[in-house]
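stage 2 :: seqdesign
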């Protein structure tokens, strides 16, 4: 589904959280080690302490005795402060490896032990993390995904700035040239607005910009945002040579056109049933539906050099919308349409211009998302731009430097275990008939999983072929971006009429995310997310299953959410459910929709319909991952427990899951998430999911009537 490409941490189309980093330019990234120290740093610290301890024998004895007493007091304090009667099985030994001690410390500092887990498990798990992580300058939100992406960016910065590219791959050399062109700030300032002015002159023709239609329609509530947006439009127009008064008048007309477009835009939560909105037709039928545009000419130009004809099939997901847009175009002055098209060109390209355009955008973002003036270094922005432009070539550098092939094998094994657990639960559903159950199992068996990275990126010739025709210079960042847009259009045209490749990735290897694609019935887990806290090879299995295991279960469950369930095992959109099972499914999802619609953020309710697919995936993913963990324990026996944490490993699974979602966010960004994001806010991804989990409620002993156990459980899978 379309939202699957924004898995787990994103909000709205192209609203994936800005990927930034914070290391100083001169800081070379170290091998990631939990707790922030490199192995060398740990060794140096140990040698220093050893020299300090080499005093008299009596002094050493006193120190050891003092340390022992202090550790005993700390351990006792940890258990008492938790405020919950946890069961520690004395037959299970404690893990005292360096990895266990480090991760135990991270878990402890993230907890808020003054809160009962049955009162508010999110605060219990994340309260300490929230206190220790004030929102960084320039950010509208901060969470585990952002932090891990920052680490990945630091690695990429080091590779691009400190590697001599003697590689046989021209694509990798293009990647470095692109990145360096973005760092040429003096050259960008020297050019100013001229590159965009030249482009506007060249095209000689004078979707909604704000994140959601809601910002346009409720003009009273969003007056501050709309005024800031109009100010931004005017400022950019003036920077491009316009006069303030006339520019504002023309931009006001463009804004009014966008408001009219917002009025006819179908709300996101009403576009979830793809069986209803999918319409296949010919270009000639599209022309009859929306006659104000010459569709054959437009599509032929967009997909050049392909030759198209009136009989060419197209898929339309918004027939009513296109009809109304056609009418709107017919009744709008050409000069306004001209300015609207130019405005779309301007706002798409200004990020490649000088600091005046960046400053103008920062003022708008402060109003829209609550971000303060950005202190984010230029290199970080350039890493993100390079990832967008040459992500798989950049991924080749990342994978060769960081990825452990054994992690790929372990991840594949975990997916297999979680798939088995999901299918076993499928067999126990009382509301599903046998015919639909068999088809569902066949679909689960057919889900194609891809781990780490696509193989072609490690083959120089194949990698070069992917970017063949994309020209990159070290001198002009704006031209590199313009070349990218043209190159991407050619790539899209080249894929038309070709059978879809199941091995084609929609995320780069360094991305901290994952996705399910229903048209291919595939799940994808890039190397970027196969790191702590989601996954670490020498961490307890409870944490790995609670982290990456739940992510795997989440993506697998998307195949059976309210949208994914409409596609069969081959990725075809067609009915394959028996009517009685479909009705039962809709009854169960109605419970979940109502449950999440009761949650509020800053007095504003969640949209349980808009977030339904992700909520189904969260709940199903947690259940499948926990059942897989129980199966692992039956095969391998109980694990050692972490020191000082005071949790059983079953409880640790749920804490590990919750701490993946620790997050801080501005009120403005929270509002934006509520109106655009198909995911629930982080807090309710934890509270909503766990309050439906019988296993969680049992292991933490939450009584009926407590906030975490309201008495009614909403279960789908």
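stage 2 :: out
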């Amino acid at each position: 589904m379309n939202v699957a490409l924004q898995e787990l941490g994103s909000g709205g189309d192209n609203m994936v959280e800005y990927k930034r980093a914070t290391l100083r330019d001169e800081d070379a990234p170290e091998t990631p080690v939990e707790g922030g120290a490199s192995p060398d740093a740990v060794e140096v610290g140990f040698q220093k302490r050893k020299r300090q301890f080499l005093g008299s024998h009596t002094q050493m004895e006193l120190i050891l005795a003092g340390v022992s007493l202090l550790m005993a007091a700390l351990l006792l304090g940890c258990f008492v402060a938790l405020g919950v009667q946890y069961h520690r099985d004395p037959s299970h030994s404690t893990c005292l490896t360096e990895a266990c001690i480090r991760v135990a410390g991270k878990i402890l500092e993230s907890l808020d032990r003054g809160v009962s887990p049955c009162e508010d498990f999110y605060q219990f798990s994340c309260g300490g993390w929230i206190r220790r992580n004030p929102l960084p300058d320039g950010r509208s939100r901060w969470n585990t995904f952002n932090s891990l992406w920052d680490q990945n960016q630091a690695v990429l910065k080091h590779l691009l700035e400190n590697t001599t590219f003697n590689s046989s791959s021209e694509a990798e050399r293009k990647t470095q040239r692109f990145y360096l062109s973005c760092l040429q700030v003096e050259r960008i300032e020297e050019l100013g607005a001229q590159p965009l002015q030249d482009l506007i002159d060249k095209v000689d023709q004078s979707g909604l910009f704000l994140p959601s239609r809601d910002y346009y329609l409720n003009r009273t509530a969003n007056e501050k945002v709309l005024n800031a947006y109009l100010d931004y439009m005017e400022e950019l127009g003036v920077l491009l040579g316009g006069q303030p008064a006339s520019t504002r008048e023309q931009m006001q007309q463009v804004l009014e056109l966008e408001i009219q477009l917002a009025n006819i835009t179908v709300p996101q939560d009403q576009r979830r049933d793809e069986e209803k909105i999918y319409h296949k037709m010919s270009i000639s039928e599209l022309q009859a539906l929306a006659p104000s545009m010459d569709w054959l000419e437009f599509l032929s130009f967009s997909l050049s050099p392909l030759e198209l004809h009136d009989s060419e099939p197209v898929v339309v997901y918004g027939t009513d919308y296109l009809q109304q847009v056609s009418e709107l175009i017919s009744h709008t002055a050409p000069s306004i349409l001209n300015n609207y098209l130019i405005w779309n060109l301007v706002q798409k390209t200004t990020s490649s211009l000088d600091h005046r355009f960046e400053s103008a955008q920062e003022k708008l973002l402060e109003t829209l998302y609550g971000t303060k003036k950005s202190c984010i270094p230029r290199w970080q922005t350039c890493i993100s731009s390079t990832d967008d432009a040459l992500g798989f070539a950049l991924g080749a550098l990342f994978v060769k430097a960081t990825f452990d092939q054994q992690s790929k094998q372990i991840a594949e094994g975990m997916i297999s275990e979680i798939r088995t657990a999901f299918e076993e639960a499928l067999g126990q559903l009382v509301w599903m008939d046998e015919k639909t159950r068999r088809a569902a199992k066949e679909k689960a068996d057919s889900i194609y999983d891809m781990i780490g990275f696509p193989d072609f990126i490690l083959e120089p010739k194949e990698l070069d072929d992917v970017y063949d025709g994309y020209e990159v210079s070290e001198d002009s960042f704006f031209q590199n971006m313009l070349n990218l847009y043209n190159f991407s259009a050619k790539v899209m045209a080249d894929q038309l009429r070709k059978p879809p490749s199941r091995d084609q990735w929609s995320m780069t290897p360094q991305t901290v995310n994952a996705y399910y694609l229903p048209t291919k019935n595939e799940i994808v887990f890039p190397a970027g997310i196969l790191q702590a806290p989601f996954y670490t090879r020498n961490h307890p299995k409870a944490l790995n299953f609670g982290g990456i295991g739940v992510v795997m279960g989440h993506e697998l469950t998307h195949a059976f959410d309210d949208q994914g369930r409409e596609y069969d095992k081959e990725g075809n959109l067609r009915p394959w459910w028996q009517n009685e099972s479909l009705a039962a499914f809709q009854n169960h999802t109605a419970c979940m929709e109502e449950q999440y619609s009761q949650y509020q953020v800053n007095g504003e309710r969640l949209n349980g319909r808009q977030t339904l697919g992700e909520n189904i995936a969260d709940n199903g993913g947690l259940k499948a991952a926990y059942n897989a963990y129980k199966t692992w324990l039956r095969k391998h026996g109980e694990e050692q427990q972490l020191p000082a944490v005071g949790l059983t490993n079953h409880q640790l699974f749920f804490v590990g899951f919750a701490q993946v979602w620790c997050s801080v966010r501005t009120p403005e960004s929270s509002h934006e998430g509520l109106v655009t994001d198909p995911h629930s806010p982080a807090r309710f991804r934890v509270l909503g999911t766990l309050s439906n989990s019988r296993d969680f409620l049992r292991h933490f002993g939450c009584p009926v009537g407590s906030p975490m156990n309201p008495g009614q459980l909403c279960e789908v899978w």
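stage 3 :: structure notes
- Residues 2-22+140-153+378-700 form a domain with the Collagenase (Catalytic Domain) fold (CATH 3.40.390.10).
- The radius of gyration is 27 Å.
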